[in-house]
Predict the structure.
Amino acid sequence: MCSNYRPVTRKDRMLTFFGVERGRDEEAVDVWPLGMAPLIRRAEPGSGNRIVVDDGLFGLLPGFQLELAAGRKTYNARSETVHRLPSFRESWEKGWRCIVPVECIFEPFYSSADAKPVRYQVQQPAAHPFGIAGIYRVWRHPDGRELLTFAMLTVNADTHPLYARLHKPGDEKRMPIILDREQYGEWLECSVDEAAKFFRQWNGPLEAFPNPLPARAPRADSSRAVRPKPPETGSLF
């Protein structure tokens, strides 16, 4: 599961690594469920663009949901059940797929079953941004306002060399679906039947190191956080 990550918000990095233009620069700050962050999706027909980047709420809200707070439970969608769970089924069936541009992910690491978890930063080598497979939909607030919302897709990671050591001992290990860079276009444009072929563990390199929250950590629904400085030691994995 991934409930905390740092999004890509700089225009130059969005263009270089994802091939899409973002209209503004922002400081990259950490996001939790109900926070706002960029997502990349297919452009509307007739817009003249192939893909666009928009801001959306981290936590997909289905049409039947009336409360914004429900997004605290729908920020990750399991690949095994995304096609049938009511919260995600329509987005999957209609091909509302997106790419979540990420600088890094934060996951809990337990040194033993009784130990307190340590927040670890997971990233690609050279701190290159990467894309996570997601689904999205437009949610209409009871007052009529519309809001773009999204969730990351996850797969089982019990056998992954890194993720098998993350999350609580005894729990199933899950990891977000990380896309190869050359797969971005295909993920957004392929048919629903073809999209399931992307449901696999990431076998490329990943780096991880401790990066604990500051003493005054934000609430779980905060979209901003003070970024602690990464340690000068190298990867532990």
Confidence is low (pLDDT under 50) at residues 222-237. The longest helix spans residues 11-18. The helical segments are 11-18, 89-93, 184-189, 192-195.
